[in-house]
Every structure is written in structure tokens, then in C-alpha cells.
Task: structure prediction
Amino acid sequence: MKFGVNYTPRVGWFHHWVDYDPSEVARDFDTIKELGADHVRVFPLWPVFQPNPTYVSPVALRRLEETIAIAAERGLGVAVDGLQGHLSSFDFLPSWLLTWHRRNMFTDAFAMEATHRYLRDLAKACAGHDNVFALTIGNEVNQFTGAVHPEPHPATPRDITLWLDTMLSALREGAPGKDVLHSCYDASWYDDAQPFTLEHVARWGDITAVHAWVFNGTAQRFGPDSFETRAHARYMVEVARAFQVDPERPIWLQEIGAPRNVLPEASVEPFIRETVAQAAGAGLSGITWWCSHDVARGLGDYPELEYDLGLIDESGRIKREGRIVAEAVAEAASAPVDRGAAALELDLAGDGGRAALAPGGSFWSDYMTTARRFGHPRITLVGDRVGLGGLAHA
Result:
């Protein structure tokens, strides 16, 4: 099981692509290696890398390749995300999708062609680097389709099928043989209005990515020290596995963290240890913690929780939380996989749709009751919704 961190540069955060300093990246990666991590997930900022629909910055691509090379020198693997997209409450869309040039990023043919061009060129820059092990279309781009977004880009499941097929093909064209995937935040699990469906999550690309955050109502509803809060990541993994065509398809816990807005300090260590142990028992391909470094207090206008999510502080020192995460992952990696003897059937249509999966929903409640008594159950999907929504396996 891989163990890594989502790389948040200590100096300049993701704006470091503009004021790039390879010595700072090297120093960050030295500390990440000291933490015991074996990989980093890096985030090119889309407007910096593709400021114009027909222009992908060669300077930015060279900086990405230099970052990958610095990681290789330290024995670190690299996963690269393309579309940023959305990070830590900020949106990063290029100007050619905004205001006077407003286009729907998921349905406009010109926008899709331009995005395909960028992802293909980004993948080409990564293709020759052996330590690049995965390419993700982008970070939680499904948040742009939801009504919660102030300026949404609406789409249907059919639209998203075409969009995902187009973007995954761009990554495969640019970097043949690399694993390619996409990531969603948990609305795709819990909200029937989301056009990124559970079938998309679990069947498109080569790996299933899970982003498991307990500030989604889980910790608020059940409490920071509850079984449900510490079992949430494992639950999401099991739901994702139920929708996979291949039960052995790799599942990557690509984002997990200990947010202080719902976890008091005394709850952080037991949350980390129990969450990691339970999730790893599902047989994950890897765990990538959010995030490597705290956001510097000198950078303004972030939600308060963002300033303290790192495993390394803004001065470059590994925090106690970092040591705890590293210990928890090391212990979990040597423990046997525990798939559980119990089983639950999931009939999404009969149970009331994705709301039944959400914290407090009917299936959620059945699952947690079973897991508490008998261990995490295997979920068997009753029927197959693919086809009903015009989807096809890709």
C-alpha cells in the first residue's frame, strides 16, 4: 500500500508555479521523504499552464518536469492532476471559460477541445518520467456541476460520460501505459442531482479515487469520536467497490485529512489511527494524506481549517500529526486485509437513491449497524443502473 501526501508547497502554496524555486521544492520533498512518504500528488494550476485555449505554457510544463525530476532524485513517485479546478475553497478556471468568454466546461465543444489539448500536452510532459505512476483529470471537478456552486456548469450524466471519455483519452494519448483516473468529492456518492454518478466514480479510468472528508455532516451529526466518523472512509471505499465491474480494481484513498473544524484536538490522534486502520483493511492501493504542508498564515482569505491540515508546519518542521499518520499507515500496511464476513444488499432504486447512502440515510444506518456488530460488510449491488442513465462502461 502506497503512502503519500498531497503536495501543498510550503512557500507560496500552489502559486509557486508562478514564482517557481526548485530549491524550495527540493527542501519540501526532503521533508516529505523524512516523513516516510513514497509519493506526492502535485497540482498544476490550470490558468497558469493553459492561459489561452490554444496555448499551453512550455515554461510551466518544464517546471512540472523539474518537479517530477526532483521527486525522482529522492525516490518519490508522482501523481499529477490536470484541472485545478478547485482547491481549498478557491476556483482556478482559465479566463477563456469566464465572463466575456463564458463557456460550459463540460458541454461546449470548443472548451472540450481546448481541455483535451491541455491534458494531452500535460500527459506528454509526464510520459517519459518513470516515477509518474498516475494522471488524474483534475481535482473534484464535479463541484462545478452542482447547484451549490455560485456559477455552475450544468451537465447531464450523458454529458459527463462524453466529457470523461474525451479527457481520459487525452491522458492516454499523451502518456500511453500510465494509469489514468478522475476524482470526485462525495456529492457523487450522496446526491442524485450530481451528474457524476457512482458508476462514473467506480468504472471510468483505471483506478477508483475516494475523497473522504468527515466535515460533510458525518462528524457534525454523529460526533467527532463516534464509530461512524472513524468508519466513514472505509464505508466510502466499500460503496465504491460495490459499483465496480471488477471487484479487484484498485481503490485509492486519494484524499483524507483530520479537519479541526469538526475534530477537537483530543480527537485527532484516535481519529487518524482508527480511520487509517479501518480504511486500509479494505485492501487499498494507497493512502494520500491531505496535505503535506500547512497553508502559511501570511496567505489570506482561506477557511480557518485550511491553515492547519498539513503534516508539516509552515516553517518546514514535521508536526506530531505527521508522525502519527506515518505510524498509523506503517501499522496498517503490515496488517492483513479484512473484507468481513457479513454482507449487505444495496438496491439503490428501491432504497430511495443516493440519499440513502448519505450520512444518516437508510442504507448508511444499516451499514453502520452491521459494521459495528460484525465488522465492515461486503456490499452486493442489486441490479445494475448502467444503461438506465444512458451510461456505458469505459
About this structure: The mean pLDDT is 95. The longest strand covers residues 77-83. The radius of gyration is 20 Å. The CA atoms of residues 199 and 243 lie 6 Å apart.
